[in-house]
Write a structure and sequence with these properties.
With 64 residues, the chain is of the alpha+beta class. It has one domain (11-62). It is built from two helices and two strands. The chain has helices spanning 15-23, 51-62, and strands spanning 26-28, 34-36. It is globular and about 30 Å long. The termini are far apart.
Length: 64
């Protein structure tokens, strides 16, 4: 999974991805890329990181 790094599912089945979408924190762009609700591109995670953690940190900093 490109969101949480769990090898047992893909992003569309990820509980974190679906939760962030339901909360309105992220959205899919025209080409399938993921953006924050304020239009900022969600960067890919580095080695040993998960994209979900970047989203949680960004949302916390924004007060979402």
């Amino acid at each position: 999974c490109f969101m949480c790094n769990d090898p047992t599912h893909v992003i569309k089945d990820c509980k974190f991805y679906n939760d962030f979408m339901d909360k309105g924190w992220i959205k899919r762009g025209d080409q399938g890329k993921i953006y924050f609700k304020d239009g900022v591109f969600v960067p890919q995670a580095g080695v040993g990181e998960a994209r979900k953690d970047k989203i949680l940190e960004y949302a916390k900093n924004k007060g979402w």
